[in-house]
């Protein structure tokens, strides 16, 4: 059976690394984005969407089914979005709509990029919306839902000065910090690797499964991602 994946958020910090890794892992990778990702290869099918409100129109022809794994790295900030409502529309509504369209097509495995501080009771909008998105997608009852909660992402952030400042500060103290710390920053590439590794692990285990699949939601915290992607010396 040929392996197939679909993803949104392919042009973001984590997404641009995940595109490359999934292209090497899957026979076909479907990418839906406003602009083509920087990495493109022969296994990729790119669908341009100018407005994510019209995502359902694209799903008519993408060929998604139960053999497809779905990935979302879609996200923004309030500053980039322009308002609380616009931020929530991207981080919650667009992700939820994508997940629902996938589930309606029979997709069983969904991999979601969230945030370490996702908390439904947080006084911060960003953290609350991340938690709401996790809960909404969990309610769709995927066979396997894997949620990734990274700490500060290391990489080039466009339009995120506070995160860029945090990275500069981290470089000064990083020699003193152990990766065993749960708040330890993590590179976007390592988060993408953790997502790809998790998907491949589920696939490999499914080949030897002899009993019915038990539906499961797995939250992979920052510390676990650091351990999964640590380079052995």
Automatic annotation (TrEMBL):
InterPro entries: Epimerase_deHydtase (IPR001509), NAD(P)-bd_dom_sf (IPR036291). It comes from the Bacteria. Residues 6-169 form the NAD-dependent epimerase/dehydratase domain. Signal peptide: none annotated. The keyword Membrane applies. It is found in: Membrane. Pfam families: Epimerase. This is Oxidoreductase. Keywords: Membrane. The keyword NAD does not apply. Gene3D superfamilies: NAD(P)-binding Rossmann-like Domain (3.40.50.720).
């Amino acid at each position: 059976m040929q392996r197939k994946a679909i993803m949104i958020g392919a042009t973001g910090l984590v997404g641009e690394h995940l595109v490359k890794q999934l292209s090497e892992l899957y026979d076909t990778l479907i990418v839906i984005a406003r602009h083509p990702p920087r990495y493109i290869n022969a296994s990729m099918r790119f669908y341009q969407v100018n407005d994510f409100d019209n995502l359902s129109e694209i799903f008519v022809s993408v060929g998604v089914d139960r053999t497809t794994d779905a990935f979302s790295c879609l996200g923004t900030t309030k500053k980039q979005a322009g308002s609380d409502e616009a931020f929530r529309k991207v981080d919650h509504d667009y992700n939820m709509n994508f997940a629902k369209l996938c589930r309606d097509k029979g997709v069983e495995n969904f991999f979601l990029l969230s945030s370490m501080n996702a908390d439904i009771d947080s006084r911060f909008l960003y953290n609350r919306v991340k938690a709401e998105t996790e809960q909404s997608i969990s309610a769709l009852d995927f066979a396997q839902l894997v949620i990734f909660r990274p700490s500060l992402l290391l990489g080039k952030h466009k339009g995120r000065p506070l995160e860029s400042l945090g990275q500069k500060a981290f470089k000064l103290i990083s020699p003193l910090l152990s990766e065993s710390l749960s708040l330890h920053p993590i590179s976007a590439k390592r988060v993408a690797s953790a997502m790809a590794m998790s998907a491949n692990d589920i696939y490999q285990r499914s080949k030897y499964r002899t009993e019915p699949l038990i539906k499961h939601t797995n939250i992979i915290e920052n510390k676990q991602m650091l351990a999964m992607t640590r380079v052995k010396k």
